[in-house]
Each structure stands twice: as structure tokens, then as C-alpha cells.
Protein 1
Amino acid sequence: MKTPSIYYIMWRFTKGGVELSINHYINHFWRQYDLNAYSLRTADQKIYDDQKIKTTAGKENNWKVYFDYFAYCRKNKEGLFHLLNGGPIILILTILAGVKNPIYHIRGTIYWDNNFQEMYLKAAWLLVRLLHSFRKVVFIANSQHSADIFRKKVLAVNPLVIYNGIAVAPFIAKRYQRTVLHRIGYAGRLHDGKNVELVIQLFETIAGEYPDMELHLAGDGPLHQSLRNQIDKSRYADRIFMHGFVDDMPSFYASLDLLLFLSAYESFGNVLAEALLTGLPTLTSDIPVFNEIYGGENDFTLGNPSYYETLHKRFIEAVATFPQLADKAMRVSYQVEKKFNIDQHLAQFEKIYANH
């Protein structure tokens, strides 16, 4: 009997949360399925085990990207295609190439940046809707928030919600009760919308009062140099550290007493869940999906990043009540462990793949 094939489609192989999460699927499914990963653009890094999955990378030229991907779909149309977002054009090409019942995994909430993009992308999604009536697409969202945004802004469908899975063991092995606030941190991409500059500003507002306090930033991205310049101009530059990409995130979280994650938009927020698993108090912006993770606990929410005065006021209040905040983080940690365990996530996909 021929082994069924699965094709994971990504925009680019890179060390990001979405791309690295595919390793969970690989380690779980590689004995059951013939696994393949396709990077629509040229690959930045080698991030998968070649003994468990075959990889293919595309080109940078847009037309070449579309042409090569369509040919790839035609060649492998009998397989199961699991698209990690990608946009409507990629989904249309997948359907037109003859792929049956592709899985479109919604892992974002931003679909266009300007009016022109909104116009032509909405037209493309209307074509998806027409094609969907003839060839079913399985829509899956990584949170109720991302499902709601997709349904309201993009396509009138009801995606199945499957939360991002986390391999909880390495994080809960580092779980402990924080007692003293000494090291503040940020983890994530250094990218527009993550508001890392606000993390630095908030640290600066209390650094004078706490002479031993440090700020540690983990991650890399296009804003690295501008943030470096901001730090160099700070009177507390000798207490702000940029670590770049960190391989051992459980240990990084364990080294901190408080995490600041002030993103302007998120479809899930792996960083938030991972940090909480170690018992790390994590202060966030008011993104709706964070309420899903916190279970309605609002003492960790600072507010809208656009309103810095409110953000700052709530930050000062949180620092002043740090021991109570640490107690609540430990309680939330056990809820996160149960809700976002990778085993539960993989079991849901195992059923979807088996019934495909």
C-alpha cells in the first residue's frame, strides 16, 4: 500500500514561530506519512531534518513563484496540502491545480496594508469562495480571535479552531515562583507592530528607581539596528542587552522575572503561552486572543499600545504589586499547560489527516 503524502506549504523557511512549529508535525507524523515541505520563496536556513522530510524551495521572482508552485501542485495533486497561510492567490493556484480539499491554516489577522491591496485581495477571496463551492477547503484557525477576524473581514466561513500546540515539558521543567523583580525581558521578532521600542521606554521609566534592574531582548528582525540605536542613546544602555536569536527559550524565560509583550496584533502569541508555562508573569497589550490565553484574567493587560500614558500607568501599578502578579502567573501557568499541550494539538490534526 502506497504511503500517503503530506505537503506543508510556507512562504519561506526561516527560524520563525510558524516555520519551526512544523517540526512538531514532522516528529509526530514522519513514520505514518511521506512528508514534504515547500518554501514559496528561497529558503533562509535549513530548519528541518532531511531524513524525515523532503524539502523544496522556490524563487524570489513573483511570477516564477506562482508558476513553480502550480507545477508542484499538479505533480503532487493526490497528496494532502497543508497551507500555513500564504494568501488567496496561493490557495487559488492550489485548487486550480487539482489538489483535493486543501487545508488552509489561518495564523494571522492582517490581510492587507492599504486600500489597493484590500481591493484586489478581496476580489481574490471572492474567487476562493466560488471555487470552495466546487472543491471544499478545510479552514482552520489558531484562535477564536483569528477565526472571527477571518470570517468578518475575509471570507464568510466558520473555521475550525485548533490552538497552537506547545511542547510543554521543556517549559514546565523551568517553572518556578518569582519573588523579586530584577530582570525584565522581551521575546519575539524585532518587527513593526511588536512595539519593542515601547518595552525599552517602559524599562527606562523605572530603571532609575531600580539600579540593579536589567532588560533582556531575545529575537532578531529588520528593526534590530534602529532598536540598537535607541538603546545606545539610553542613559541605561549598560543594563539593556540584545541577545539575537535564542535557541534555548525555556532557559531564557527562566532567567527573567517579568516579560513585556506589547504587540499591536497577534493571531495567537506563542511567546506569551511559553513564558507563562515557566510561571513567568507576562504583561501584554489588549489583543483579544491574549484574553483567550489568560482565560479572562485582566491584571496582566496594560492596554492599547497607541495610548502610552495608560500603558505606563498600568505598568507602574503592575511593578508595584509584583508578588501578587507572580502568584497569579503561577496559577495561569497550569491552565496554559492543559489548554495548549502539543499532544492535544497533534491529536486533532491526526483525525483531520486520517479523514482527509
Protein 2
Amino acid sequence: MTLSRVRGVLVGAMALSLAVPPWVPAAETKEAPVKEEKAEKKVMVKGNEGVKSLQEALKAKGEEPGPIDGVIGKKTRTALGAFQNANDLKVTGRLNDQTTEKLGVEKRKLLRDAIFPRFDFQEMAKRSLGAEWRSRSFQDQTEFVKLFADFLEKTYVGKIASYSNYTGESIDEPYAEVHSKLLTAKGEEIKINYMLHQVKSEWKVYDLVVGDVSLVNNYRSQFSRVISKSSYEELVRRITQKLEESVGKLGRSD
């Protein structure tokens, strides 16, 4: 498995936030090798629904994003920059709040469609529940995976989609680790490591290490405490409540 293949795994997760693949150094951005463009397309050959929505929106505004194929290529990047320029927006090449507002698209949906196919939520949920996972019925497991994925969307999707710089990776098949640095809205820099494993022929994220804290390990500790002191049903109730509260906050901020 080549390094470019692993790097390409996260294109779908970051392509809507960056106009160029996150591993391309700033000094090389304008002259990205053709082979990198091909590698990007190879990874995203099936197309991404979030990117397709972006391409359709750009086309409706009179830009030329190229084929509506769900692949962030040169034409789509150029169209995004041209749209920003034509609408007196700062030409960042990124799908920021001002750009999505002008395009008339829902950023959160675009980001979800771009990011979530790259995550193995069943594996994340399984690891987060620990030993409790094995004692649950198939129906319980299925329902918990959906609940856990919804919860992560509401609490992490915006942060994951923020500007990230690729800083390196390591591979020990069937596992890999992609390193990046995230710049928050306050200008703070946070290390984020994407932990991946191979699922059939694809690399999928099964954990995020933010700073030095594993998201999965952190949740496993919290979930275990709730279950040991109360019950699995109480854990589900609490997550559901947190999810409802986060939805309420989003509604009030819109």
C-alpha cells in the first residue's frame, strides 16, 4: 500500500474544507504534480455526494466545475475560486461559511456527506462500548451504532472539517496513522491523528487522537462508568439526551 493511497483516504474528509489535498505543501500548491491529481481521483472514483452537491450548486451559479462526479478536481477547485472572486469573497479556495451562504447550500450536510463515509462507526461504537458490546443483541448493536454516529456528527463534524494540515503518516498494515494539525477559529493549533484500518479494500477511520487523547478510549471510560453505576439503558438515555440538547443549540444558533 503506497503512501499516496493512505493520504488519499482523507481527501473525502477534507476536500470540502480545502481546495487542494491537505498533504500538498503550500509552496507546491500551484504546481501540484499530475500524478497526485490522478491518485486523488482513483481514491474517490465512486464520487462523493457532498462534493456532487457542491458541483451542482456551482454550476447553478454559472460556474464550470466540470463533470458532476463527486470528485474534487482542478475544474471544481477553479470554479470554487472563481465563484468567490465573482461574489467579492476572499478567494481562499475553501468552502467557508460565507461561500456556502452565497451558494445557497447547507454546509453541515455537505460536510457530513464528505466526512462520514470515511469513518467506520461500527468499529468506533464497538470499541467505545468495550465488553458491553458482546453482551448486546444485534438489534441493540445496530441501534447504538446509529446513535453513536449521530452523536459524533453533532459534536465533532464541524471540528473535523476545520482547516487541517497534513504532517505525516505511518503504515503497519492493516493499520495506518495519518498525522495532521488543525487550526481552530481562535487560531489555536491542535494535533489530530487519524487512526485507520483496512476494511476490505478501503481505509477507514476507527479512532481520532485529539492532542494526546483517544476519542474512543475517552468514551469507553465514560460509558463504562455509566454502565457500572447504572445500566446500558441509562447510557443510551444520556447519549440521546445529549444529542437532543446539541440539536437544540444548533437550532438556536441558526
Protein 3
Amino acid sequence: MKKLLGILWSAYIILLPLNLTFWLGVENLLPVDFFAPLLLALSAWVWRREWPSLLRRDWPVLLYLALFLLSAGTAFLTGGLSRALIVAAAAQVYLAALYFGFRAECLERGRLTHWLGLWAVASSTYALVGIAGVALGYFGIATPLARWYPNLGSGAWRMVGTLGHSPNFIFSYLHAGLFVCLGLYLNARAGRPAPVSRGWLAVLTALHTAALFLTYSRGVLGTAAGVLLVYSLRSGSLTRPLRVLLGTAWAGLAAAFLYSAVFFTYTTDALFTPSQAAADSLRLAVDAPHKSLYAYKNVVHLSDGAHYTRLPGGFTFLPAQHWYLLTASWEMFRAHPLLGVGPGLYPKRLDCLRDSGALGIPQGMPELKPHSTFLGALAEGGFIGFAALVLLWVFLLRRRLGGSDPLALALWCGLAGWLVVGLNIDILNFRWLWLYFALTMAALRTGESEGG
């Protein structure tokens, strides 16, 4: 039974980034979900003797799930049942089950090393495939692996995942893979056992770095924060010039974060057109002149009553999509402060706010999710949902870090980096995040045991 379970977990990890968008247009279902029930049922049976101690040890994850379901149940009692509510509640149960199932798989240090090695190889393969897709795009060969990215000019292509999905989808997967490879590399440097040689782990870490850059995701700031945190916590072994360089890098990251926060909340330097149709034609055209134009201009048409401020020097200050999502999230929280509007119900409430005209949300704005883990928790879960999220992350990050286990340190820093990523991405629905939670908790616990 253990052998079969190992095969199923191996298949799950290897196939994890594949999605059904390219074939079926299905956004929320992955091929691995079809055999996940068998995988989890078998995990429950094989590790049945471990569950009492494991559930006692990791009870905050269960409490988080209970509070999430409390919010969902309240939304059902007050507003009735809906498909979005069912999907959101079922997804959270599934993700928590993935955490505990994989957590049991990683109880032994030898098995943990095995899964980390498999993860590193699988993630590196997808990184390489994605880079190849970007390279083909540069030479004029379009594939579902990459799409033209006009913001950076006519020659820029952006990695969008395996057979087409979104840059944030593949970015978040590669973020986890980077810290797995980095942790294994640091372990090898310290003379500890590693699944492949130190040189190969350095290559795989560099490969992930290049692939992450090519996603052009704003979440890369979170990845950079995690990497800097790794070397900051190991700074006792660095020379003074390297420590100065590390401090400079932190200052640069802070400046980039502030710039990003303003730039992606408001739009500046906009090219105005006489109609929405004209704006769309410029935005969507693919001939060379329009490519170069769009590379440095935001093409917009201001409808009557649109909120904007013209600044000196020809710049214009326009609320961007993220500003509307932020204000809508806060409005939902104010209206439902205790338990929020309910899991999965944000898009529907956003539509109501848009149609009411109360927040000045453009009428053409489509159904969108919060695009932020923390705003989503406030809007959909209220104070209780946000408190549950804080409880979960305090549990995940509360471990004391010793210098004896560089693998645990790297995984923990990658986990901390997720907090920055979560400011602008809904991260808690990523299946690999919950598996990464399990890897990190297992590494931290075994690191504590070895450190005495």
C-alpha cells in the first residue's frame, strides 16, 4: 500500500502544474484532481496511526478550516446556496486534506529528502519548458507556453504556465521550486545529503531564477524578499562588504515595492482616445507601430464621470483596476465586518457595487476576485476570516530558526516570501502552496530534532 501511495504522490507532484485550460477552458480543475480522492483516501488509511499526534500538533490548520467553513455556513444561512460558495468551501477542505496527507508523507527525514528531490526535478523541468516557450515567442513562434507582453516592447514574451493559464499561476509554482532548490543547494554546501550534486543544484536554482524573471509577475518581489531573508539570517558568515551589499539590496527592494504599489494601483502617462472603440483598437492591435506605442503608453478612454487627476508635466493620475478592488474589498468588510460576504462570493458583490455606481467602478469592469489574499480574507471572511488567516500564518512561521539546518531555513524564508506575494495574488487556492506548507513544517521539525 505504501508503494502505491508513493506512486500516486509522485504522479501528483509531477503533474501538478498541468491544467485543463488549453483543452477544455476549465479554470479551476487540474488533471491531478481526478485521482486526488484516491490519493487522499489511501493516505488516510496508510498513515492512520499517525493521525492523532499529527492533528494535535497541527491543530491551527484545523481551526483555520473550521473558521473558514463557519463563514461559508453563515453565508449559506443568510443568502442561500450558490455554486461559488460550494466550490470555495469544497476547495478549502480539499487543500487542507492535501496538507495533512503530504505532511504525513514527510514525517521521516529520508522520505522528506526524496520528495524534495522529486519536486526540484519536476519544477526545473517546467521552468525549462517555460523558458523554451518564451524563446520560441521571441523568434516569432507562438505557443500556449508564452504570450506577447507589450508593456516591455515588441520583442518581449511572457511565460504563462504549462499549456496556457496565467503568469501568476506559473510564477507561484516556480517560487516554491526555487526555495526547494536553494535549500537543497545550501544543504549540499554544508556537507549534508542531497539528491543530486551541489553543482547541479546551483544550475537548477539559477534556472528557476531566470524562469521567475520571465513571468514578469509582481510576485517576484516576494521571491526576492525570501532570498534576501535567507542570506540575511546567514549574514554572520558573510564578510562586511557582502553585508553592506545585502543592506543595499534590501533598500532597493523596498523602493521597488513602493513603486510597484503606486504604479499598479494608479495609472500614469496615459494616451487618451476619443472613444472606447479607439482605445480598444490601439490596445489590441499587433502591428509594429502600435506595439512600440503601447510599450510606454497606457491607452484609455475616460467615460463621463471617471475619476482622474491631471498632474504637472503631462501626466495623468487614474485609478487602476487594483484600486477598485481594494476599495471594493474595504467596502464589503465594512458592510459585513464579522464574517464577510462569504467565501467565493466576492465577484458577485463586486458586480453589485459596480452596477450601483457607489464606488465609481467602471461599468465595463468584469467579474474579478480580490487579487489579494489579505483583502480577500477581509471581504469574504470578515474579522473572523482574517483572524483565521493570521492564525494560520503565525503557526507556519512561529518556529525558531537555528543555523544548523540550511534546508529548513530556506524553506521557511520562501514561506515568508509568500506573505509579500499574497499582497497582490490570491495564493491560498494554489495546491502546491499547501504541499509547500507541509514540506516546510516537516523540514522545520526535523531540523529542530537534529539541532537538539
